[in-house]
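OP here, attaching both records as promised.
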Amino acid sequence: MIMDVADLSRERIGRAGAILLGGRDFGELRNRARLAEELGFDLAGLGDVPMHYREVNVCLAVVAEATSRIRFGPMVTNPVSRHPGVVAAAAASLDALSAGRLVLGLGAGGGPLFSMGLSVPKRPELRQATATIRSLLAGEPSRWEGRPLTLGPERPVPVYLAAYGLVTARIAGEVADGVLFAGGTSPEVVMSALQAVADGASAAGRDPGEVDFWVMTRASVGSTVEDAYAPIRANLASAGSHGLRSEAQLATVPEALIDAVRELQRRYDQSEHVKWDGANARLVDELGLTEYLAERFAIAGTPEHVRRRFDDLVELGVTRVLVPAVDREPEHFLEAFAAALA
């Protein structure tokens, strides 16, 4: 059976998720969540950036009440600013409110924690927090720092672990329902991450096919590639600052650009995290990093280019592609990205 164009379009957008921000008021958030649902997106995620945007769990409740089909969840929260037991309890409550539509995205915290003067958890701590939260959301007793924890969710809630590098991707394969891979979109990078997840699952005695693989990437649609880069420069700066900090990740950067990446990390302004027209957006241009970071961390270009890159990721084995709608016209982005997948 040959799939017609309309069916193929619906299948593509059904593999996409949008990451939203709270907006200036809750009315904007309601409208954006409803628009994402109407356009056919599978998921609406919200960033957990407490010093810059409205409280994520309040915003998630607004999304739950404003929509009826679309899945939603924090993309991502962390186990530092909130105790793992609190993270699990909030997720179970939101899942109950929405009749089973909650997906919990968990990560190390990165920029949001830095902006509050907090340290990100080490990998063993992140691994244990993920396992603890997943157990609680499966209705199983667990422990955190030696203390027993129990929770009674109405149904199991899936837990996805965000990863920039291969070590964390392997941890996701061991202890999470899926991975939110943000380390890049090139075939080589994605294939390496897929293998890391499979290795982690196998080492834990799990079927690698049971671990979902999502890619979180910056996206932009324009009449030219250069036009598409402009609104995502702040997101590219965030990716370069937070996603390339480890020595392992820096080793994957072309030698001629390593000094520029280190300078980006030194000068990155946490107070303007993902502000589309802020100092960080200008900094990537100044340092000559925009094109490199866009090619590594984004799907950006003409509609045909975006559609081709999206299909390439699905062919590699990516289940969902999550894209942040954080530029100055989020509604326009959602519509343009959905149209590009048609």
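Record two, same layout:
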Amino acid sequence: MSPGNYQEINSTIFSELQEKVLDMGLKQNYLPETHQLEYSENNEWLLKVSLPWSIEFIENEELIKREDYHLALVMIRAGIACTGYFHNGEMINHKVFRAYMVRQKQGKSQIKYLKTKGKSRAGSRIRLGESEQFFEDINERLQNYSDQYPITHWGISCSKTLWPYFFGASPPPPFEKKQENLMSIPFHVQHPDFETLQQIHRKLNSFQLLISDIGRTKLGIIEGQIKSEKEDQDLEEW
């Protein structure tokens, strides 16, 4: 497993891993904004485990499956975005949004360009108009989700550069920036299209392990055991 890359593990391996690292004296800390467990030593994290969003974490108790789970996702990059609504793991609705927001020669989004050059030319005004419509269309779809379904969690992946335009659009998104049931998608989203939406949803419903560079050095034996156990289980399933 390369540093910075998540590795999918099953619930059995997670339970064994959790027991081992706690026995080693690592501190466990729950991160509600990403629904992750972080294990650290001397205030430096060594590994993180992203828990399935369909499972509730309760301190000192077993993980509990959420009943009647409603999840809405939104992933935004300059010029492309997607939304999806899922009920108990099944995709019910999705939409991909595209806009003419990137200057062809510079490859820079219109929003970033406005910070340095302004919006005097016709092409800039067109791109700005499409940018505004882009966020309005996204938020209208999210508002529809909010009106139709009792959303348990909202999941978001969006550059902080775009947050003022996303939250400042009319209509605004159906949640606040620091709303309790708004969670950040912890996985990198390069191109938010339909395929990526499916991949991210699958990751959000599985245990995903991330080990830091220092963690790889200190927990090398454990990492090797995880890899070996996973290979054994893959062979059994085959």
